[in-house]
Automatic annotation (TrEMBL):
Molecular function, one GO term: acetyl-CoA C-acyltransferase activity
Region forming the signal peptide: none
Protein name, entry field: Acetyl-CoA acetyltransferase
Presence of keyword tRNA processing: no
Length: 383
């Protein structure tokens, strides 16, 4: 069984990013609040109209309470769902259902992190995972390296194919003034990079940056009155299959194989209808796994699919058009930035704008390939 919300009944009416790259002197909460204020203004609304608050901060488990207080709000509903980088796609699904039901009228989904200026690092101790800790893995890099190794063994995927993902992301970033990592990056540069957790090198890993993002959702009738074109939510679905990578049933298949088809069904489309794809690329193997699981190529073909610049500018499928987590930004959790880029593409205002985008997919990953969530956005012409 599975439920859904009406296709296109709600829409993103406002969006913003703030402080991408380095934002010294700001707390994560302050950054999230600033992005929220910018997104509300972008929607042509006032902060006092926000009655649904959705947030997941890296350093505050009660972020909903903190942000409501900071902004002087008394929301009807606050959601601090924490599934890692997929949380924000789940926020979209929850907000869409609540807006459709009339429980709230205006939802603000926001995130901020000062991970870079605050001295945070990508690699942290495993902590409470007793089954993996004896092997002293680098968390989370070794988990993704395990998935990559299995994909190599099972399907013949190569480090050169992983490098194609990193090189494509950099090519997109070089056209995006917001992107933190700029400059040339070639296949040989990635292959020669320092190995972190075999077969994952430092160039196969996402950035460690600061950054904040926010979107405002309303019902479609109100969104049509906003200053910018509405971005209808056509479908959204999430799936969680495990937490620790050691409990993953198949290291080459993620829960995106469930969230994707459910989101497509809600939207009434298939992978071939998607004009632009924004994926959570914490590591290069992610892009390959998600392209397969979301139906853009058969299982096992992801490595070959990305060869020869296929997902780079000018390739057959635009993927991570802002530079992704690999080259644009990755402030602890990237999911909301993928949603913002997908919505910008629909609006026609992205830095690397793809002509005629009517359908955009944003996909989030949480934990160690643990939680997957897919959002499909459309233009006004799709409803």
């Amino acid at each position: 069984m599975g439920g859904s919300f009406p296709r296109g009944a709600t829409a993103i009416a406002g969006l913003a990013t703030f402080g991408l790259g380095e934002c010294p002197g700001w707390t994560s909460l302050e950054m999230a609040a600033k992005a929220g204020q910018l997104a509300v203004a972008d929607a042509g609304l006032t902060m006092r109209e926000v009655d649904g608050l959705f947030i997941c901060l890296p350093d505050d488990v009660l972020a909903g309470l903190s942000l409501a207080e900071y902004l002087g709000l008394s929301p009807r509903f606050t959601d601090c769902n924490r599934t890692g980088g997929s949380a924000f796609m789940s926020h979209v699904a929850t907000a869409a259902m609540m807006l459709t039901a009339g429980y709230i009228d205006t939802a603000l989904i926001t995130y901020g992190s000062n991970q870079r200026s605050g001295g945070g690092k990508l690699s942290t101790p495993v902590g409470s995972n007793a089954w993996e800790a004896p092997y002293k893995p680098l968390f989370p890099a070794s988990s993704y390296a395990l998935a990559a190794s299995r994909h190599f063994h099972q399907y013949g995927t190569t480090r050169r194919q992983l490098a194609e993902v990193a090189v494509a992301a950099r090519a997109w970033a070089n056209g995006n003034p917001e992107a933190f990592a700029q400059g040339p990056l070639g296949i040989d540069d990635v292959l020669a990079a320092r190995m972190l957790s075999s077969p994952i090198s430092v160039k196969d890993c996402c950035l460690v940056t600061d950054g904040a993002a926010a979107v405002v959702m309303t019902r479609i009738d109100r969104a049509r009155d906003a200053p910018r074109p509405p971005v209808p939510v056509l479908g959204a679905a999430a799936a969680t299959w495990h937490n620790a990578i050691s409990q993953m049933g198949d290291l080459t298949t993620t829960a995106a194989a469930e969230s994707g088809p459910r989101a497509y069904a809600m939207a009434g489309i298939g992978p071939g209808d998607v004009d632009v794809v924004e994926l959570y690329d914490a590591f290069t193997i992610n892009t390959i796994l998600f392209l397969e699981d979301l139906g853009f190529c058969p299982k096992g073909e992801g490595g070959r699919f990305v060869e020869d610049g296929a997902i780079a500018p000018g390739g057959r499928l635009p993927v991570n058009t802002n530079g992704g987590g690999l080259s644009c930004c990755h402030p602890g959790m990237y999911g909301l930035f993928a949603i913002v880029e997908a919505a910008r593409q629909i609006r026609g205002e992205a830095a690397n704008q793809i002509p005629g985008v009517d359908i955009a997919l944003a996909h989030g990953n949480g934990g160690t390939l643990s939680s997957q969530a897919t959002v499909i956005l459309g233009s006004a012409a799709t409803i």
